[in-house]
Design goal:
- The chain contains 2 helices and 7 strands, in the order H-E-E-E-E-E-E-E-H.
- By secondary structure, the protein is α+β, with helices and mostly antiparallel strands.
- The chain has a single domain, classed as Immunoglobulin-like.
- Strand 1 and strand 2 form a beta hairpin.
- It is rod-shaped and about 95 Å long.
Length: about 140
């Protein structure tokens, strides 16, 4: 499992070619109840950020904030601005996408996804002697 997680993080996860112009870094770690993916999106509002899971693919998109023009101002430097974000990550198969919870606070997008629960199932035990008696 650690190898899978290291590969996920080291490679930035298997990322589709349709990345954002700016490769927004992520944090990926195991918390007590779930695995967590975090993405710092300062200046983006929660209304402008979208997350969707399709199969094992997690897609995160964000639209840039539009700043009003500087009317009646003499602008010396204007560096504020954001580019659209479009990042897709392939989730490890040990995560259950149906448990995903997404929050955003103070410019930090956090996606928590629980590990798949492996339920033990009862296996029927066939009486081989009874099967042989039926064949005779």
């Amino acid at each position: 499992m650690m190898e899978t997680m290291n590969g996920f993080v080291a490679a930035g996860a298997p990322i589709t070619p349709a990345q954002s112009a700016v490769n927004v870094p992520i944090n990926f770690y195991e918390a007590r109840e779930a695995f967590v993916i975090e993405m710092a999106l300062p200046g983006y509002t929660s209304d402008a950020v979208h997350a969707a899971i399709n199969g094992r693919m997690l897609k995160i998109t964000a639209e840039p904030v539009r700043y009003e023009t500087f009317e009646e101002s003499k602008v010396f430097n204007h560096q504020f601005g954001h580019t659209p974000i479009d990042r897709t990550l392939e989730l490890p198969d040990f995560l259950d996408p149906d448990t995903a919870e997404v929050t955003m606070a103070d410019g930090l997008l956090r996606i928590s996804i629980a590990r798949r629960r492996e339920e033990a199932r009862q296996l029927p035990i066939l009486d081989q002697h009874a099967k042989d008696d039926d064949a005779a």
